Amino acid sequence: MNLQSISATPLAGLRTVWLGLALSVLTILFGQGMGIVFGLNEEAIKGRLKNSAMGVRESAYKGDDAAMKAVLDKSWAYMQRAHLHAGALGTTAFSFIVFLGLVRPPHKVAVTVSVALGAGGLGYSVYWMLAGFRAPGLGGTSAAKETLEWLAMPSSGVFVIATVGMLCVLLWLLFSGRDGGQSGE
User: Fold this and answer.
1) How far out from the chain centre does Cα 15 lie?
2) Which domain holds residue 172?
3) pLDDT one-digit tens code per residue, 29-38
């Protein structure tokens, strides 16, 4: 085996999972971008949330400023949760996907699991940000989460299923006698 074939093998495997890798890096960038925006504009974001709540102060909160403050505080926590989920899920997805690209399981498995990890991590991170923005104007976090269930359930579900898929790939590699790095197509 020459140096060219050694370096070509990992790259060929990573090309198979390119879309999942791109989505995972986008998720990481989303989280970093939120962190930058928080650092530069925390008060502006909190002001936007408060303006949204003030618009429905009487109808949604019945003039109860304490209830409105509780929703605003929880909304800000949701923004932070989006930032943290993006960093953790994006990094986890990236690591798993690079592993897939290097061990090269069957092509359909690699593509399906990698896209599910990348899309699931991004979708779930965006869900928390949207829930944070929606909650003040809806009068509560439960209402916001309910309106975004269409995004939360599939994105979190697909990420978990893809993680189970990673476990299956790992077990397959450990117990199949396969060395990895071979074409699984």
Assistant:
1) 21
2) 13-176
3) 999 999 999 9
